[in-house]
Amino acid sequence: MTQSEFRCIRDFCLPIVAIIRDNGGEASTKHIYEEFLSRHANQLDRSFFTEHKDNDVKWRDYVNRAGYYLREKGYIARPRHGIWELTDKPVPNGRNVLS
């Protein structure tokens, strides 16, 4: 993604899946936050760091909401508190496929 292509929660989904996949199919929430910021901080609009949603900076709130969305669609599971893992459901490629 290029700068400011992260506009809505679904834009966060495929990068989160990639982080979990790159970590062997399972990752802690803390690892996902750290890795997401490491990989994509320069692609986020400034508002993602200054605005707050639900008592957290906007980018972390969007990561959480994208995780919820992925879980609802069956792409990830949360087997234990703070752990996200990929399910066997194939994740489609492409930007708008997780709608």
Can you give a write-up of this model?
The protein is of the alpha+beta class. It has a single domain, classed as Arc Repressor Mutant, subunit A, CATH 1.10.10. 42% of the residues lie in helices and 13% in strands. The chain contains four helices and five strands; from the N terminus they run H-E-H-H-E-E-H-E-E. The chain has helices at 13-22, 29-40, 47-50, 58-73, and strands at residues 26-28, 52-53, 56-57, 76-77, 83-86. The strands form two sheets. It has a three-stranded antiparallel β-sheet. The longest helix is centred in the middle third of the chain and has 16 residues, at 58-73. It starts with 12 loop residues before the first helix and ends in a 13-residue tail after the last strand. The model has no long low-confidence stretch (mean pLDDT 89).
Essential attributes:
13% strand; 42% helix; two-stranded antiparallel sheet; three-stranded antiparallel beta sheet; 99 residues
Report helical residue fraction: 40-55%
Strand content: 5-15%
Tertiary shape: globular
Head-to-tail CA distance between termini: 18 Å
Oligomeric state of the chains in view: single chain
Query: Mean pLDDT, rounded to whole units?
Result: 89
Largest sheet: 3 strands, antiparallel
Task: Provide the gyration radius in Å.
Answer: 13 Å
Structural class: alpha+beta
The total strand number stands at 5
CATH-derived topology: Arc Repressor Mutant, subunit A
Count of folded domains: 1
Number of discrete helical segments: 4
